[in-house]
Amino acid sequence: MAGKAAMSARADPPKLSVDEPAMTRNLSDVPDWIYLLREFETLYRYGSAGGSKAIRSHRKRVRDALSAIIDANPEIVERDVETRPVVQHFGRAIDIGSRNVMAGLSRALSRLEHQLTWEFGYERVPKPLERKYAYCEVLGPKGPIKADNLILGFVLFAPNTTYPQHSHKDIEESYISIAGAWSENDSAVYAPGSLILNRSDHEHRITTGEFEPCLLAYAWIGPIERLAYPGMKFTAIRKPKPPGLAPLD
Prior knowledge:
The protein is an alpha+beta fold. About 25% of the residues lie in helices and about 25% in strands.
């Protein structure tokens, strides 16, 4: 009997505790995330030799912060995969990006397509944007790559979209165009590879082309407490007042 009991004990597999914590993963454990960050770092280091002193300074701050984050091998925070209606344009945007100077970043992002968390960023998204806009943060306070002094991500727009005029307090923001033509404040049309800098509190509005989606990479840099709760200030567009009647003689 003792022998049978011993055999039975050996045959039963060990039971795992339901309270056992999940295994922590770091950046080095997930090569696809590393490759994506390296594409960002390359763009901010070698993407353009031009630009003003302010743009060069911004690029240096972004790449220095990013290099330090990669070296620190931060934790990967598992986020729920979420989608939004505009994501139906993601495949087309990647196709376009893979055919231009942004091919490296486009392909690195495409390998993570099914791990992205697309969101609106508001409790109530403006009705015109519900099917035309979403963003995904890939590095920052919310993760999935944990960092507190830099935010990197992507924003996707459907064709023929206008994102309303807004600004970010204490946050310096840059966009790098991946796919699609777009303009900011009606001042120019930007092609893939373009880098646009918005300083803190700078009001800007984005308008995309009529026929193709627009995919932009973005970087936010600023105080740690502001990046944790960035917020956004929308600016109402004031309609011009009708001219008054000329005074009667």
